[in-house]
Amino acid sequence: PAGSAPGPARPGTKRLPRAIVVGVKKGGTRAVLEFIRVHPEVRALGTEPHFFDRNYHRGLEWYRSLMPRTLDSQITVEKTPSYFVTKEAPRRIFNMSRDTKLIVVVRNPVTRAISDYTQTLSKKPDIPTFEGLTFRNRSLGLVDTSWNAIRIGMYAVHLESWLQYFPLSQIHFVSGEKLITDPAGEMGKVQDFLGIKRVITDKHFYFNKTKGFPCLKKSESSGLPRCLGKSKGRTHVQIDPEVIEQLRDFYRPYNIKFYETVGQDFRWE
């Protein structure tokens, strides 16, 4: 209408992501996203769009519409940890762009399963015990691989689907353990993988002793320190050491195969 001045045009364009944090749940994906978005050359979607698993029918334009605006010099990143275990996700991402860079944050699968269970328990206090869900037959040591908390940690199995579409050079594996003990070192490798300057360094982090987790001295949106939400660093449920031992035995062959495939020893043994 006449007389109304248009609002300031926001610079940049909404683009499909050039890099996706595809997994894994309870591995440290939120930390990677929060840490990388401090970089001036990275813009990240804060929420999980679940496009390549739940919302694929909505189409690429819908997906693009969710993305932050970026300048030509910036990279768009999104994260949805369930992609790693979604059968169709590798093909769908490949069909969007075969050049997509993939980031997978992994941690000791036994710890990951306990963390996963702890999170579920906080929402559904009446679920069965961890032991009850872990085994089909405990005395025989038969682990129930249909339970998602167990299945996600079989990294070597899920990785096979991705390697049908993407070369290993396009997939970067972050150690969830090192992300806590050496966040700057792990994020340095992520920046190298994305082909951007190492801007995020030791000076960006401090260790929060209460949470047992590194925090950012300054967040992307304000000059204030930023720690991950209260659900991060939650105290795990106590599990019978014998159950942990049985799970270690179960995961060992999968871990070894995973180390051999990616050429990296995560020292979970």
From TrEMBL:
Q: Where does 3'-phosphoadenylyl sulfate bind?
A: 26-30, 107, 115, 232-236
Top-rank EC class of the record's enzyme? transferase
Q: Does the keyword Transferase apply?
A: yes
Q: Can you list the disulfide-bonded cysteine pairs? A: 215-227
The Sulfotransferase domain extends over: 17-252
Q: According to the UniProt entry, what is the EC number of this protein?
A: 2.8.2.-
Record membrane topology? Single-pass type II membrane protein
Q: Supply the alphabetized keyword list.
A: Disulfide bond, Glycoprotein, Golgi apparatus, Membrane, Signal-anchor, Transferase, Transmembrane, Transmembrane helix
Q: Name one GO cellular component term.
A: Golgi membrane
User: What InterPro entries would the database entry show?
Assistant: NST/OST (IPR037359), P-loop_NTPase (IPR027417), Sulfotransferase_dom (IPR000863)
Q: Which GO terms describe its molecular function?
A: [heparan sulfate]-glucosamine 3-sulfotransferase activity
List the SUPFAM superfamilies hit by this protein, alphabetically: P-loop containing nucleoside triphosphate hydrolases
Q: Which residues form the active site?
A: 26
Write out the annotated subcellular location.
Endomembrane system; Golgi apparatus membrane
Signal peptide per UniProt:
none
Per the record, the similarity remark reads: Belongs to the sulfotransferase 1 family.
Q: What is this protein called?
A: Sulfotransferase
Q: What species is given as this protein's source? A: Promerops cafer (Cape sugarbird)
Q: What is the lineage of its organism?
A: Eukaryota, Metazoa, Chordata, Craniata, Vertebrata
